[in-house]
Amino acid sequence: MSAARLTIDLAALAANHATLKAAAPGAVVAPVVKADGYGLGAGLIAGRLWDEGARDLFVARLSEGQALRAALGGGRPARIFILDGLAGADAGALADADLTPVLNTPEDIARWRPQRRPCGLHIDTGMNRLGLDVDDARAAADLDVALVMSHLACAAESSSPRNARQLALFRQARARFPDAPASLAASAGVYLGAGYHFDMVRPGISLYGGGPQEVADDRFAAVATLEAPILQARELQAGDAVGYGDGFVADRAMRVGLLAAGYADGLLRRSMGRATAWIGDAPAPILTVSMDLLAVDLSQAPRAKAGDLVQLLGPRARLDDLAAATGTVAHECLVRLSARAERVGRG
Ligand SMILES: *Cc1c(COP(=O)(O)O)cnc(C)c1O
Fold first, then answer.
1. Which of 21, 196, 208, 244 is catalytic?
2. Is 34 a residue of the active site?
3. pTM tops 0.90
4. Model confidence band, residue 2 (pLDDT cutoffs 50, 70, 90)
5. Mutate to test the pocket of ligand 1, among 196, 202, 213, 214 (most ligand atoms within 8 A of CB)
6. 161, 178, 203, 323 - which has most CB atoms within 10 Å?
7. Which atom of ligand 1 is nearest to the CA of 151?
8. Domain extents for the chain?
9. Tell me, what's the pLDDT at 170?
């Protein structure tokens, strides 16, 4: 390997899917593969999840739904929900690609009615993102409603009183559509208990290895592994600086490794001085990050040399730890992974 490589472990994906199914035994697990499968490749991810029994999928946009429909082809006729509904999308184009919009506004309802095709309904229960007011949803009474759903604002905090408030509102709202399956929980909601499962759960991040409570969770395996080789190891004396603008200044004699990875491969520049890479079982703190090169501290890996592989994200460099270190969420760390890193599928 000569530069950063991203390995996508489909066996780990299947294991995470099984973990979620076991956690919500009465519900359909409908994977969320928006944003190109959280940056990992929606066709690859959805194809494997189809093999694992997933027949319902969620994306955000019409274009994502069209691409996913093409990737799955005629042999894998999954039901694909479009979370953004008809916002900016042509109803005819949705119908042509056999996509199911999740309607979010009274205008969506009026524009979808002439299609006489199934739809989802998103009812806002207090997150104040997309969704119909409970009363506006009544206008959909004559539609073929295949799913009534809402989304939780604070599910990662199991003690938040907002969860129970949203649950109560959702129960009232879905009672108006007694024949339609219902869905409230994303990854975190699955772990709030069976009362939150309804007929379908919509996990995204935990399928990809992110902990539902936004901390590293051993029940979920890393799906994305980003590794890069050491191009050069360098001895520094106290006072020597590394990188642009003297980004790191050594306070002692030490060895650093220069890796063939950088923010062009999706590693956030904010990792500098905050995140940790791993060489086998030895931590290698990230010192500087530039476009194509990154420097790590080899103090704890004294035998590391040019050609050795360093893990920047994966089973040791946990996704949730990277997110916490860089002040973001696991979702953002994944979707930043760029197309430049060579990609390989495994399992
Ligand atoms: C993105 C999204 C999900 C999946 O959320 P995760 O936190 O990744 O599990 C589920 N439902 C809706 C409406 C979403 O926007």
1. 244
2. yes
3. yes
4. confident
5. 202
6. 203
7. 13
8. 10-208, 224-346
9. 97
- What does the angle CA 290 – CA 296 – CA 301 come to, to the nearest 5 degrees? 165
CATH: 1.10.510.10, 2.40.37.10, 2.102.10.10, 3.40.50.2000. Which one for 224-346?
2.40.37.10
Measured in angstroms, how far is the CA atom of residue 129 from the centroid of ligand 1? 12
Give the CATH H-level superfamily of domain 10-208: Alanine racemase (3.20.20.10)
Judge whether residue 264 has pLDDT over 90: yes
Q: Does residue 203 line the site of ligand 1, with CB under 6 A?
A: yes
Check 21, 34, 38, 263 and give the catalytic one: 34
151 lines ligand 1 (CB under 6 A): yes
Tokens 């194809």 found at: 47
Question: Is the model's pLDDT at 246 over the cut of 90?
Answer: no
Q: Which two tokens stand for residue 135?
A: 């009363």
CA-to-CA dists, residue 234 to 5, 228, 302, 335, angstroms? 23, 17, 12, 32
Tens digits of residue pLDDT in 89-118? 899 999 999 999 999 999 999 999 999 999
Q: Going by DSSP bridges, is the β-strand pair 119-122/99-103 parallel, antiparallel, or unpaired? A: parallel
